[in-house]
Amino acid sequence: MDPKQKALTIAQALFDRKAQDITVLHVAPLTTLADYLVIASGFNHLQVKGLADYVTDMTEEKGFDLRRTEGVSEGAWVVIDYADVIVHIFRQEEREYYNLEKLWDNGKNRLILPFDNLGEEE
Known about the structure:
- This protein has helices spanning about 5-15, 45-60, 90-100, 100-105, and strands at about 20-25, 35-40, 70, 75-80, 85-90.
- It is α+β, with helices and mostly antiparallel strands.
- It has a single domain (about 5-105), classed as 2-Layer Sandwich (Beta Polymerase, domain 2).
- It starts with a helix and ends in an 18-residue tail after the last helix.
């Protein structure tokens, strides 16, 4: 599966589990860290942990190559690294504080997601 499809698969899984404010950014032109960032929020520590567990279980079933995870036990900011796709799941307070979108969104690299109701064409 190509990196874009991986990112979209993860975003859909997060949406299916009621994650909030899901964003996928194509960052390959900006960094060598990854091709895509998937950023989402949970309402509280338990939801953040649950979302992270669901994503790792789902991606394991699909054969994604998980490099590492960080922050699951705390449940405030979880990072799941698949090399070409990095997933960030935050509690809302931490997401607002770190504001990764401001750092990585160049105004042209945000993917329109299938479940977005923006009325925009890709």
